[in-house]
Amino acid sequence: MTIIEDETRAPALHPFTPAAIQRSADHRYTFQGKTYPGVTTILGMLDKSGPLMSWAARQTAEAYLELGPDKVAALLAAVGDEGVVKAVTSRSAWKRDEAAQLGTAVHALADDLVNGKGIPKTLPDGERTRIEQYAAWWLASGWKLRLSEAMVVEPTDGPSGYGGYGGTFDLLAYDRDGRTVLADVKTGKGVYREAVLQLAAYGMATYVAPANSPTAYPMVEPDRYVILHVTEEGVREVEIAVGQMERVAFLACITLHAWGETMKGKRL
Predict the structure, then answer these.
(1) Which neighbouring-strand residues pair with 225?
(2) What angle do CA 131, 117, 221 make, to 5 degrees?
(3) How is the chain split among helix, strand and coil, in percent rounded to 5?
(4) Which of 129, 127, 130, 131 is nearest to 118 (CA)?
(5) Does domain 20-261 sit in CATH 3.90.320?
(6) Which pairing describes strands 34-37 and 28-31: parallel, antiparallel, or unpaired?
(7) For the chain, which residues make up each domain, given as ranges?
(8) Residue 182 near residue 199 (C-beta atoms within 8 A)
(9) 49: phi > 0 → left, psi -120 to 50 → alpha, else beta; which?
(10) In whole angstroms, what separates CA 140 from the centre of its chain?
(11) Degrees (nearest 5) of the Cα angle 60, 65, 68?
(12) Could you report the per-residue pLDDT of 146-165, keeping only the tens digit for each?
């Protein structure tokens, strides 16, 4: 099915009309009485320890350098070795939280922008720079919105046969050549491999529904998969190849996640 253009906004609902796909605060998706894990939850089974360990180590070193020898000596005298270790290593936690908050804010602003809303007059510098870059890119891209921040679901009895899942994609659009493009917005320092499987999962889903819509539609098959990497320097379009290997890899993640659920609470 082709999603018609005036379906880019969800219809007005009667207050007692349930949405076709419902998302909980912990990113679980309910469809036709069954609840499924979210794509990002499933991909949490991937081992990210290599890049994360390097990043956390760098944050710790930078925190120590920022303090300087005099402040470190004073801190040692006040709280001891363990106190200094906790103070310096905590940097990675608050840096991660800052990055997550920035990403959430830019996603919301980007969604407003493609739906015809302007950029607020007052924004923190990091948000303003990125959303202005995104606005300039959107204007020049030639893309035309089909859906944004829409939810998808793949039921347990769907064609994958691997168990169900749900998710929320950032953008479904026509590119300047009329091809359907499924895109995800990233605001971090880099684009990581799990983003490929994230887009593969969204594209494999059986149903799609605008937020709060009482109707779910058959998900269209994308012609292109793109990561939009939004930084202070601009927007980088990262073309993603999604084929059989990527789809099978995500299905394997579903199995890993299901196995992980069976191990919860068990002591080995």
Answers:
(1) 182, 240
(2) 80
(3) 45, 20, 30
(4) 131
(5) yes
(6) antiparallel
(7) 20-261
(8) yes
(9) alpha
(10) 24
(11) 130
(12) 999 999 999 976 555 567 99
For the record, the structure tokens of 17 come out as: 């009309």
The encoded tokens of residue 38 equal 């979210």
Which of the 8 DSSP states describes residue 222? Answer: P
Q: Give the range among 88-97, 102-111, 142-151 with minimum mean pLDDT.
A: 88-97
Average the pLDDT over each of 25-29, 120-124, 131-135, 231-235 and give the range with the smallest value. 120-124
Looking at every residue in the chain, the average pLDDT score rounds to: 80
Q: How far is CA 238 from CA 127, 184, 241, in A?
A: 21, 10, 10
pTM reported for the whole predicted model: 0.75
Place of tokens 């891209």: 141
Q: Token digits for 113?
A: 């922008």
Per-residue burial over 68-81, b if 16 or more Cβ lie within 10 Å, else e, is: eeeeeeebeeeeee
Amino acid at 59: Q
pLDDT in tens, 114-147: 888 877 777 777 788 888 888 888 889 999 999 9
